Amino acid sequence: MVIQRIKEWFSGKLAQVVPPKKTAEKERVAAEQLPKWLKEKTRPLIDEAKIEFTNVQRKVNDTLIRARELLDALAKAELHNPKIDPHLIQVMEGNREVYVRRMRIFFEKIRVEDLEYESISSYLASVDTELETLTKQTAKPYYVLQEFFRNESREVALQVKQLEQLRKEMGNLLSNSTRTQVEDAKNAVSEFLHKLQLEQDIRTMEQDYAEQKAKAAEQLKSIYGQMEAIVQSDEHQEFKDFTQKLDALSKEFSVLNQEVLETFSPLLPAFKKYNYAGHEDRLVAQYLEDTAPALFDDTDLKILPVLGKVKEMILSGALTLKDKKQEKALLASESITAVQLRAFQEKHQELERQKRELTKNISKYKGMREYDELHYKKEHVETKLKRLEQQLAEFAQSKEKLDLQTKKQYLEHMLTKITGVDVEVLFSAAAVDIEISGEQITKTA
Fold first, then answer.
1. DSSP-derived secondary structure letter, 276
2. pLDDT recorded at residue 121
3. Domain range for residue 326?
């Protein structure tokens, strides 16, 4: 019990003396500052990688010095057996000359002096090309030299092998180095900033289209108001009365035309027979084609004598019709009078007079033209509104496809992993609000 209390007492004292560990604060970096921030954070990592590459480069140059010494020794080496066939010696000398010359060219081309870290990839590609060329051009001379200077040529070949190994070592450093990760991070930052710029461009266009939509909606509201004002005016009500009367008058014209047609309808088959009989009367043809207009144009009622002739022909048997048609035609020819036809014509003239008067009154009304112009504007603005709404919907889809929030989280994870710093990327744009995880960060660039 006492021991427990002593432990508790010491624990309390230690808690007062030893401060609690501080949690590393998250670094918040504005998106446009990411390239600069990444460069600063990764500079030590790049410097460390450069040191590793410098060490390998030094090994390459040391190996080249040794390789040149051995190549010089091979070039000056003398035969152990001078009694070899002169022809064979001549072949050997030719191949040695080719081998030494090609090796010196190779050594010179892969020599590294002040090689920039950023140029390592292109250097390695160049070494690969030179090695491939060297193998093709020295294979035969090497085999020949093996017959005469086995040890000397082998020592040179071993140095080439060592250079190949150093090339692989350098390649492994490059593929496994922080440089690759940094380049990937740079590319990810560049891509993110590009998509962020796209999103900001879309927002700018979206705002412009939204303003256009608001103006168009206000314009449409104004047009509706003007159209309603015209409709509610006394002049428009009077205009409506005139048009309604004109519509009613049109119905009276139809009724009158129908009455005329019904009056002459029993005679029309007889008129056809009359013309077929050789009379070919133009007036009769007009009555057959359109009866009512023909009567209204027949101011002298020239049709009446024709009715008399038709009656005579029916009675004389010169014109015959089937059964009841002939009876109806004869009855109509006897019953139609000048008074009746004059009444039709006078009625038509009165209707025409009323129509002219109504048409004249309607033509005086200017509001209808204004109304038609407003109606045209209304359709134009409605079409524009529909197009703007469609474009705004496309903008929304484009922003959704960009999915900046997901890309931001991926980028933060990548940057944290490579730099060891818990980083939060802040969207920033000129007067643009972008929602982030339920919050809004507004930054004016």
1. I
2. 78
3. 234-365
Q: Under a CB-based contact definition with an 8 Å cutoff, are residues 422 and 416 in contact?
A: yes
Map tokens 């209204």 to a residue. Answer: 296
3-state secondary structure of 441: strand
pLDDT of residue 434: 37
435: phi then psi, degrees, rounded to nearest 5: -80, 130
Across the range 255-282, mean pLDDT stands at 86
Nearest to 67 by CA among 43, 93, 102, 91: 102
Contacts of 311 (CB under 8 A, 6+ apart): 330, 333, 334
Dist CA 381 CA 373 (whole Å)? 12
What is the rounded distance in angstroms from the CA atom of residue 259 to the CA atom of residue 271?
18
Distance CA 60, CA 54 (A): 10
Round to whole Å and give the CA distance between 270 and 318.
11
- Count of H helices and E strands in the chain? 15, 4
User: pLDDT for 158-174, tens place per residue?
Assistant: 998 998 898 888 887 77
CA-based nearest residue to 74, from 98, 90, 105: 98
Please give the single-letter amino acid code of residue 267: L
What average pLDDT does the segment 214-218 reach? 92
Tokens 């009158």 — which residue? 256
One domain for residues 67 and 155? yes
Q: Which of 21-30, 88-97, 139-148, 302-311 has the lowest mean pLDDT?
A: 21-30
Look at residue 50 and tell me whether its pLDDT is greater than 80.
Answer: no
Looking at the fold, whether 265 and 354 belong to one and the same domain comes out as: yes
Residues 87, 108, single domain; the answer is: yes
The DSSP symbol for 440 reads E
What length does the chain have?
A: 445
Helices assigned H by DSSP within 233-267: 234-264
Q: Beta partners for 326? A: none
Task: Answer whether residue 223 is part of any domain.
Answer: yes
SS3 426: strand
Which pairing describes strands 439-443 and 423-426: parallel, antiparallel, or unpaired? unpaired
For residue 181, being part of any structural domain is answered with no
Residue written as token pair 């929030």: 405
203 phi and psi, to 5 degrees?
Answer: -65, -40
